[in-house]
Amino acid sequence: MTEDEGVDEELLTIGAFAARARLSAKALRLYDRLGLLVPAHVDASSGYRYYRGSQVERARLVALLRELDMPLARVAEVVEAVEVDGADAADRLAGYWAAVEARVAGQRTLAEYLRGRLSGRSSEMYGKFEVETVDVPGQVVITETRHTLADELPAWIGASLTRLLAAADECGGVTAAPFVVYHAEVSMESDGPAEACVPVADEAAARAWAEARGRAWETKVRVEPAQRLAYTRITKAQVAHPQILAAFGAVEQWIAERGLEQAGPCREVYFADWEASGPEDPVCDVAFPVR
């Protein structure tokens, strides 16, 4: 009897297992290499892979999860969770799919926005935004700056403004609404940087605070000059990317139509309590300095 023939009869060759699992041998080798589905036995001399019939369900699960375009690392999390708690595995899948649907919804909105631009309907899209100007006095701001991509931006803005608002008590208190300045584009391919800013009352105390903080969060203090802002007010629902792109486009078009010039980087001014606001509540001004 050869070594192969002496293998436990409960084991299946890779070909037989592939047929039962309705997968290719190539896919099984890939899953083995990635640690997603390890053979029950590998012949030491021939290298042949053997699987147990009980592994069929896991093999099919891996294949089905991959059909959802689930990243391999997430697939591994789900299949490992199945071994411990099926409900936990289901929750992990639900979380992944919710993120997929949110991403697709955002892409759908972006596609509609681009269709409008490409078809010459920009004026129609921008017409729903009312643009005004406001004169803002010079102000001292404490800031954090970070290079970040679009998917990480909302979380960073929330965390950064929370830190700065807490620090404002050491700097004489908050004097105006916090804002975020975009010194370059933030997208999935461009990482800014973005600068979170909180206006404060006491410049000397602010500089002492920044000195004590060092470079831990790229903190600094600067004085914003008095300036005129062209802005449009948007709701919490409209803040999400890519919906917010239409608001930026509307302000840019308004500036160009009136022969004004952009005098600095664009910004988002957050004047409302984000957590307490509903989707249709105004929370943010999309603004450009102009002259």
Count up the helices: 10
Mean pLDDT comes to 88
- Stretches where pLDDT is under 50 for at least 5 consecutive residues are 1-8
Gyration radius over CA: 28 Å
Spatial strand sequence of the major β-sheet = 4-9-11-10-6-7-5-8
CATH architecture of the largest domain: Alpha-Beta Barrel
Distance between the termini: 91 Å
Q: CATH-wise, what's the superfamily of the largest domain?
A: Regulatory factor, effector binding domain
Shape, please?
A: elongated
The tally of strands reads: 11
Structural class: alpha+beta
Question: Mind explaining what this structure looks like?
Answer:
This protein is of the alpha+beta class and 291 residues long. The chain folds into two domains: 11-94, Multidrug-efflux Transporter Regulator, Chain: A, Domain 2; 131-290, Multidrug-efflux Transporter 1 Regulator Bmrr, Chain A, CATH 3.20.80.10. 43% of the residues lie in helices and 21% in strands. It has helices spanning 14-21, 25-33, 56-67, 72-84, 86-118, 122-126, 153-167, 203-213, 236-239, 243-257, and strands at residues 11-13, 41-42, 49-52, 131-136, 139-146, 179-182, 194-200, 219-224, 227-235, 267-270, 282-290. The strands form two sheets. It has an eight-stranded antiparallel β-sheet with strand order 4-9-11-10-6-7-5-8.
